[in-house]
Amino acid sequence: MRAHPAEYELVAPGTLTDVLSLLARAPGAWLPIAGGTDVMVQYAAGKLPARKLVSIWNLPELRKIEISTDEIRIGAACTYTDLRRHEMFAREFPLLASAASWTGGIANQNRGTLGGNIVNASPAADSLPALLVYDAELILVSARGERRLPYSDFHLDYRKTQIAPDELIRAARLPRRFSGYYAHARKVGARKAQAIAKVCLAALGRIENGVITDARLAMGSVAPIPLRLHETERAIKGKRIDPALMQLAAKTAAKEIRPIDDIRSTARYRAAVAGNLVAEFLERLAAAETGA
Amino acid sequence: MSKTSQRHSKCEITFTVNGKSVTVRAHPMERLLDVLRHELGLTGTKEGCGEGECGSCGVLMDGALVNSCLIPVLQASGAAIVTIEGLSADGRLCALQQAFLQCGGAQCGICTPGMILAALHLLDKAPQPTSQEISEGLSGNLCRCTGYMQIFEAVKEAVRSGASK
After folding, report:
1. Interior CA angle at B114 toward A200 and B106, to 5°?
2. Are A209 and A290 spatial neighbours (Cβ–Cβ below 8 Å)?
3. DSSP A111-134
C-alpha cells in the first residue's frame, strides 16, 4: 500500500535550536529526516509508522567537519560524499572512507548521512563497524543540553538504541590515534555496487617483528547490532601470525558472532565468511609488515 | 491500515527547474519525482524501483545527483533542480545525449534520463574519467537492456567530443 502524502506532516524549521524545541515540546512525536535514503523508502512502501516528520537536511550546525590536533568531529548530517571528498578520511580513517564509498551509489551517497546510518541502526550498515574500531564517541543533543556517549554503548539490541525521543545525534568524534595502524576493510555482498552486506569487516592492526601488538575488529551483518569482536582480538593479541593462529582466529570469530538466516544469506555462510575475513586480515597484516 | 487518519493541507513550495522558477502547491511529503512528473509535466524523469536502488529517477539538485523518489518536495524548497528536459535547448541535444544516441547507449529508455544525469554529474566531478570512475559513477543506475558497454562507450565518446570541459 502506497502512502498518501496528505496523511503526513513535514516541517523544516531551518535551525537546530528550532528543531530541538519542536522535539522537546512533543518527545517522540516527530521523526527527524535528513537525506531520506532510509525514511523515504519506508514511507513509499506505506511502512513508515511516523506521521509527523521534521527535516534536518542541510542544517548547517550538523554538517561540519572539524579537525583539531587530537580528534576529528563529523557533523551527523555529513553525507557519505562529504566523507569521501575530505582528504582526512582517506589518510587517517581509511575504514570510514571505504565504507562511505561502498554505501549505495553516488546519488545515495549524496544524500545518506553518517548520523542517519547510526540512528537507523541497521546491523548491515557499512559505516558502523568502522566507527566501533575507531573508538568513536557520539555527541547527542536536545533542548536539555548535550551529552556524550561512547559509540560502543549506543546500540542496545536490534534497532534499539540509547537515543532519547527528544534527541538528535549532533556529531561523531574520532580520536586521531589510529594512523599508525594497518587498516583493512572488506565487504562481501551479492555484487560490488549497491548491495547490502552479507558480512562486512573493519579491522585495524599493529604488528612488530611478526607479533600482533594490537588488533581492533568489528563486523556488520553478523549480529543484531554492529559487533566488536573482543574475543577474537584477545585471541590474537601478542601472538605471532602463522597458519595456526589464522585458523584459531577464524574459529573464534565464527563462534563470537551471532548471525541469522535472512534474505541475503544464511547463518552458516556468514560464520564461514566471517572466519575467512579475519584470517585474510591477518594474512594481509603479516604481509604489510614484510612489505610483501 | 484503514484507521481514519488526519489529512493535512498542501503548501506552496518554490524552487527552480531547469533554470526557471516554479511554485507548486503540494503536500510537503510528496516525492519530488511525483511533483516533477504530475504537477510540472516533466515526464522525462522516470520511476523505476521507487526505493533508491535503480537511479532512473535521477535529477541534479543544487549540482548533486539525487534520486528524486527519495526527496520529499519540501526539501527541494529553494533548490535548483535539473532534469533531463533541461539538457537540450531548442530541440538540440547536448553533446552527452548525442553521444548516447551515437553509441547505442539507450534501448528501452527507462534508465536513460537517470543514466545521462549520472554521467553529467560524473563528468562535472571528473572531466577525464577512467573506466573505473565511469563504472563507479554509474553504479547506482541499473540498465536491463544494454549490458552497460554501450553506455560506458557513450560517456567516453562524450569526453572525446568535448562534452565535459
Report:
1. 110
2. no
3. T-BHHHHHHHT-TT-SSHHHHHHT
Q: Count interface pairs A-B at CB distance under 8 A.
A: 108
Residue of B nearest to A196 (CA): B53
Q: At which residue does the C-alpha cell 601488538 appear? A: A213
- Report the mean per-residue pLDDT for chain A: 94
Mutation choice for A interface testing from B38, B67, B135, B152 by most A CBs within 10 A? B67
Sketch out chain B's domains with CATH numbers: 11-86 (3.10.20.30), 95-160 (1.10.150.120)
Residue-wise pLDDT tens digits, A138-191? 999 999 999 999 999 999 999 999 999 999 999 999 999 999 999 999 988 877
Maximum CA extent, chain A: 65
- Whether domain A182-290 has CATH 3.40.50.11720: the reply is no
Q: In degrees, to the nearest 5, what angle opens at C-alpha A25 toward C-alphas A22 and A26?
A: 95
Asked if A10's CB is within 8 angstroms of B29's CB, the reply is yes
The C-alpha R_g of chain B, in whole angstroms, comes to 17
pTM: 0.94
User: Would you state the pLDDT for residue B1?
Assistant: 45
Does residue A257 surpass a pLDDT of 60? yes
> What count of other Cβ atoms lies within 10 Å of the Cβ of residue A190?
11
What one-letter code names the amino acid at A37?
Answer: T
Measure the CA–CA gap between A115 and A121, rounded to whole angstroms: 10
Domain ranges of chain A: 6-55, 61-175, 182-290
The three-state secondary structure class of A255 is helix
> Residue A201, SS3?
strand
Contact B26, B73 (CB under 8 A): yes
Query: Residue B110: which H helix or E strand, with range?
Result: none
Supply the ipTM of this predicted assembly: 0.95
CATH of domain A61-175: 3.30.465.10
pLDDT, residue B2, reads 44
Q: Which of B69, B137, B141 is closest, CB to CB, to A44? A: B69
What CATH number belongs to A6-55? Answer: 3.30.43
Contacts of A40 in chain B (CB under 8 A): 31, 52, 69-72
Contacts of A51 in chain B (CB under 8 A): 5-6
